[in-house]
Amino acid sequence: MNIRSVLTLCAALVLGATLIAGPATAAGKADEKTPINDTWLTAKTKIALAADGRVKGRQIEVETTQGVVMLRGKVDSDAAKHAAGDITKLLDGVKTVKNDLEVVAPSKQEAVEEKDEAITARVKEHFAKDTHLKHADIAVQTNARVVSLTGEVKDITTSAHASWTAWFVAGVKSVKNDLTVKEKS
User: Are residues 149 and 163 in the same domain?
Assistant: First the structure.
């Protein structure tokens, strides 16, 4: 081998190593500086749940707020509920997991869902009639007669009033208030 071939080979190796190591280093730096947004984390969680055979990912609704992932819906077994929580906890960017999954036998799921939908409709109807709540940004969801309230309200009084109003709707077993209060600017 002559000197020219050796120099060409060395240059090719250095160039190849630079091309391989450069993007890897840049990706590491991007991960450190780029915050993982909630939308990305929600999508990542849904994909992970759908890919796992222990969990029926389509049965699970995922919401993410500031890295806190909330799992809601109905699953067939305790094993599926725990698996969903474990899968979610392992994802990069997840700070906390709120596992609100309800275990309902497949034969009873349809009846429970129909009741839950009716309760949700009644709670929304009560909110629409209330002068303090009709313009509030409150999402209502019901799982096994437990009403979950999410969204952002102007003050703590509105949050408490929403819980109180939902509590007295027929069929509600309990109310879970995940409302946040807007910061005053």
Answer: yes
73 DSSP β-pair partners: 60, 101
Give the pair of three-digit tokens for residue 168.
Answer: 């007295």
74 lies in which domain range?
38-103
Sign of CA dihedral 112, 114, 120, 126: negative
Final residue in a domain of this structure, among 103, 131, 160: 103
**What's this model's pTM, rounded to 2 decimal places?**
0.50
pLDDT in tens, 26-63: 444 444 444 568 888 988 998 888 888 888 777 788 98
Q: What is the C-alpha separation between 78 and 40, in angstroms, rounded?
A: 27
Q: Domain with 112 in it: what CATH number?
A: 3.30.1340
Indicate the pairing of strand 174-181 with strand 60-65: unpaired
Helix ranges (DSSP H) in 36-169: 38-51, 78-89, 106-129, 156-167
| Number of domains comprising the chain | 3
